UniProtKB/TrEMBL annotation:
This protein's name: Phenylalanine--tRNA ligase alpha subunit
A molecular-function term among this protein's GO annotations: ATP binding
GO cellular component assignments: cytoplasm
Domain of life: Bacteria
Source organism: Fictibacillus aquaticus
Cross-referenced HAMAP family: Phe_tRNA_synth_alpha1
Cofactor note: Binds 2 magnesium ions per tetramer.
Ranges for domain Aminoacyl-transfer RNA synthetases class-II family profile: 111-320
Gene from which this protein is expressed: pheS
Gene3D superfamilies: Bira Bifunctional Protein, Domain 2
Binding-site positions, Mg(2+): 256
Main location: cytoplasm
Amino acid sequence: MKDRLEALKVEALEKISAAADLKELQNIKVAYLGKKGPITEVLKGMGKLSAEERPVVGAFANEVRDGIQQGLDAKSTQLEEAEISKRLAEETIDVSLPGRPAKKGSAHPLTSVVEEIEDLFLSMGFTIAEGPEVETDFYNFEALNLPKDHPARDMQDSFFITEEFLLRTQTSPVQARTMEKHEGQGPVKIISPGKVYRRDNDDATHSHQFMQIEGLVVDKNVRLSDLKGVLETFAKKMFGEERKIRLRPSFFPFTEPSVEMDISCFKCSGKGCSICKHTGWIEILGAGMVHPNVLEMAGFDSKEYTGFAFGMGPERIAMLKYGIDDIRHFYANDIRFLKQFRNV
Ligand code: 2U9
């Protein structure tokens, strides 16, 4: 029986020594030391031994089992260490490799320009007012001195949702709503940036959806010279301190008198170039004194209060400022276009 146990130990240790991985080692353990293994079998047969032989063989069987277990433990440690060394070698990181730059987004150029304009007017004491993009016929037209059959309504084809509701064609209804909330009490000093919608065929200079920034100041003793001062400050801050401005007479139903503002060309300083179409001047915005009808409709006494208003298209401002030749670039979301404005 001792010989059989000795042979099993030799056989097991040989197999342990040759084991290639931990799984094979586990199989060897089950095969030799498990309940159905040969050592257990040998021990089961000890009943047949004499009383003198039994403790001797029992002690030897324990010795064999311990020897195999030690062999298994030593091999297991060896295989684990080999596995760790292999993984460490495979997973070596070359810390000298240059890092991969993280992809970083940036503000859309139109957002940058709108925020620049907002900051400029905030610094002059204006606050920002917002309103709904789905408007009523009343606030979009009627309250702005454009009654139902006014010919100026033909000037802008609109997206009507029902006879009563439409997508706003300008941000002026925001100003009309704000004035109404003031219940005839000044001052009102707001700008209203936002999206507007017009039924237009998109091309390089037209988009069915675009942005507007309008401004409105209503108070006692507000004059055209105040408008001129505010607009001149805006033009210089936006396009350079050396800019000159000029106001030309114009017409809008909601302002009287109405003007259009040009700035001296920032490219040729007035000598004439392709940007200013050889006139030396670039049209930037429209403006005027708020029409008394508009003041009255919003609850202000037009004998006591006067106001000025202006409106501009930030896409046009951005196109001029950055030399962009097509309004559709702002809405195409082509990453090659957007990337160029990373540091703006
Ligand atoms: C109220 C009263 C008056 C806003 C004004 C303009 C002149 C103007 C256009 C410029 C290019 C719009 O973006 S654009 O298409 N706007 O020329 N807007 S005065 O006048 C108002 C607004 C609200 C209650």
